[in-house]
Design brief:
Distance between the termini of chain B: 12 Å
Number of helices of chain A: 10
CATH architecture of one domain in chain A: 3-Layer(aba) Sandwich
Number of helices of chain B: 13
Shape of chain B: flat
Order of helices and strands of chain A: EEEHEEEHEHHHHEHEHEEHHEE
Largest sheet of chain A: 8 strands, mixed
Strand order of the largest sheet of chain A: 7-8-9-3-10-11-13-12
Number of strands of chain A: 13
CATH class of one domain in chain A: Alpha Beta
Shape of chain A: globular
Helix content of chain A: 25-40%
Oligomer: heterodimer
Structural class of chain A: alpha/beta
Strand content of chain B: under 5%
Strand content of chain A: 15-25%
Radius of gyration of chain B: 24 Å
Structural class of chain B: mainly alpha
Helix content of chain B: over 70%
Amino acid sequence: MPLLNVQNLSVRFELGRQSFHAVDHASFTLEEGRTLALVGESGCGKTSIGLALLRLVPPGATIQADSIAVRGRELTRLTEREICAIRGKDLAMVFQDPLTALNPVYTVGEQIAEGLRLHEKLKRREAWTRAVEAMREVGIPDPAQRAREYPHQLSGGLRQRVTIAQAIACRPALLIADEPTTALDVSLQAQIIDLLLQLQADRRLSILLITHDLGVVAEMAHDVAVMYAGQIVEYADVKSLFARPLHPYTRGLMRSAPGLAENGERRLYSLEGTVPDLARLPAGCRFAPRCPHAVDRCQAPQALREVEPSRLARCCRALETLS
Amino acid sequence: MTRRILRILNRLVQSVVTLLGVSMLVFVITHAIPADPVAAITGPKADKATRDRMRQELGLNDPLWVQYGRYLWGVLRGDLGTSPVTHERVTEAILIRFPSTLFLSLGGVAIWLIVGVPVGVLTARHRGKPIDWLTLILAMIGISLPTFWLGRLLQYQIAYRDGVLPVAGFFRWDSLVLPSLTLGIVGAGYYARLVHSNMVEVLNQDYIRAARARGLSEPVVLFKHALRNALIPVLTVLALDIAGLLAGVVFTESIFALPGLGALALQAVLTMDVPMIMGTVLFAAVMVVGANIVVDFVYRLVDPRIQ
């Protein structure tokens, strides 16, 4: 049984008279101890998926899913109270910007300890001790002293370690990491990636990695779901994906990533056009207006289909356009 | 440590300079208005000799800077002069009336916060829903109510017709209920909206979403994580409002015939009682400066980012 099984998850936003699907029938599974990366540009729906798993989508958004199951337990049928008991305990989340994700008026130790008091019913002192331990585990030097400090007194790297300590303190099975390195300096990015990999190895932690950074994907992910305009357009294990991307969007994404571009390309490639307005999507393939290989057939809606064994792509020309 | 002492010292010097400025300004203004305090004291029928003698006695023939120096010297010794109208010592008059104003203010502020904070939090949580609209309308009505009208209304219905509470004056503690209510109703709506708008902003912050993601219950998220942040900007407004109240609640005190500072100041203005005007204004300035120092201190307690 997979640790996380999501079937046909949609997130629908109603904003005034407009309504659109930020996430459109996404299905994926994540095994214990593995990392699944959701990759795509801003606004493709990857963060909405992370928030939907915790049932934390903003007001005006509704979640629909055939199934969201963690270790076989169906989350969609839980009451608000029951989902609260799971948040932070079984499913924890690390946010993009560690400064804004920490409350400025409480010490970082308190912000870790309160979760322990809540979920593990620990006394104040025990919770504090465990919070300091968690901080030590994520590599914060002098954790007993640091725990008494406020977020603004810590550097960016330490802050992100604090949010990770906060997330892993209650030993969750699944960590949702939403752009965990984006707000950090390049040198710190590598450290945080190493930390997450080490935690994963130590605890058989499953990670749902939300990112737009293919470099991070290459270092951390086992499987990858590429998202475009609310849909998963390609789903594969990381090696095959990088070796042979099947969807034209995935290829465009890779060519436009600095450092990943093939040799000989001097100028950074950029995809033509812009992401479509989610409220006015093309009827057929959503990527067709920007796709260099678009033909008449692409005007029909595309299904995510198995193009090759264990490789899914939402493109009717997936194999034809490989060159 | 030394930096801290320096900071406090700096703050004190600033306060003294401010108060000095206020005293000077008040002195100049009260002496510049084309009204003759001597005429106000002696009445229209006094002859010129009496008025000249009076002017001499009060030292009004000296140059203005000498008069100011004399006044300031008195202030430093806690002597704000003597009212030529009521023959009260100004310092004493203020101290006698201060408790009435203080208790009235505390009553009013308690209502502001007891009503304003929960309503502000609740409406921010349920933003755009009927309860938000309803309280917005009620708050607008509350803010727009003229004190003198609301005060009279409460006085008429509750005190006079129902006979539940005293109509006016300050004899028993329940004399303060209606005045506090008058003060409270007008300000509660304002504070509800102030807390509301700050809460709405705070609830959009990432750390609120992060707190929810840790499984914290809604009350903990709202009252522990959001409210403390939302109250930081409210503190400044509150401190200045309290300072304003302590300087005298003119309308409310007048309506309910409370012997407070507002009534004292109003009476002083109406009778051209110059030492009393200066005394009450200076006292108000002390309250405002004091409130600023207190709010600085409280800020440091509430917001660790301020060093």
